[in-house]
Amino acid sequence: VFLLFFTTHEELQTLDVDDAFFSTPEDIAARALKPEGGVNFIRTFKKQAEDQAINLPPNLDELVQNATYVQSPDNLVWRYFYNLKGSAEYRFPGGIFQWARYRKNGTGLNETEKIFSESLHKHENTLTLATLRIVSNGLGQPHFHFNANEMGYVMSGCGQAGVILSSGVTTNFNIGIGDVIFFPVGTQHYLKSICEEDLLLILAYSTGNELETLRMNGYFHGTADHILAQLFSKEQSEFKKFPKAAK
């Protein structure tokens, strides 16, 4: 089972190998592929009633005798592959975040991860993927991304998502297994686990650069306490009660 994300502002357009083949005139395909039997062999191919990209033939075991592959060298594989489950864990109060990330100059990445990071940055409107695990009653605090849309898929557990808009309107909704969520760039949002089971999501960020994120505890503590005193009509000393945000 694969979970797929696509970056496009248009309706997704896909051309499968079999569709391309059957859209090509028989004589052109025969001259291009040069099979034994020529055009007569090309004519033995019949278009299936169902899309083979989704529905495999029921007699697949009879058709395929050998499906082995030789693993390519790391310098080629890691342009397209990332071992997310085996990557570094970033723990926060309430959960764990693992991320197939782009980093400027490869900071904090091992040699194979650097290959993947460099490959990401070569492509416009690329994606970076992450897994987010929030423990029962844990919170992924309000935050927003300066330079990326975010899309997520709920793998397990259940939770509550919130979107906080600049107009002061907050939208809350429950999420469960199989649900897809979307937060546009610059939209402040949060996630909370509300089941006994951990809330586990796969997240995709659309950015061709290093992801820039600002969390509530970061911008709140980063604001001078005398400014906060004016905003909230509280004594300046009261804001010493907020702990510094951890990195």
From TrEMBL:
GO CC term (a single one): Golgi apparatus
Domain of life assignment: Eukaryota
Domain Cupin type-1: 107-240
InterPro entries, per database record: Cupin_1, Dynactin-associated, RmlC-like_jellyroll, RmlC_Cupin_sf
Name of this protein: GL25 protein
Naturally occurring in which organism (per UniProt): Sula dactylatra (Masked booby)
